[in-house]
Write a sequence for this structure.
């Protein structure tokens, strides 16, 4: 069931619609992470305007996401390689046991 929720990003409230309790939880956790990163930049450079702080937080989050995607691709490739190696090993065991 869709639900109107309000989150705060930086110093501004935003009204959103969450289509499920799980999505609401995800939105709220994401907002917390954005605000945490904004705070880090705000503590380092208090003279910067909020828009700039939000932009740096967004860039930082996007870079982390891209890094996670690269890591996932690498692990997925390694998993496929190991699966093939294991299948080959098991085939050889099966052939040698006959």
């Amino acid at each position: 069931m869709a639900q109107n929720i309000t989150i705060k990003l930086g110093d501004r409230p935003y009204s959103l619609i969450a289509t499920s309790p799980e999505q609401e939880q995800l939105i709220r956790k994401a907002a917390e992470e954005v605000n945490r990163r904004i705070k880090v930049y705000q503590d380092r450079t208090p003279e910067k305007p909020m828009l700039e702080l939000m932009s740096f937080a967004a860039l930082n989050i996007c870079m982390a996401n891209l890094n996670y995607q690269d890591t996932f691709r690498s692990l997925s490739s390694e998993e496929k390689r190991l699966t093939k190696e294991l299948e080959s090993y098991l085939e050889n065991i099966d052939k040698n046991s006959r």
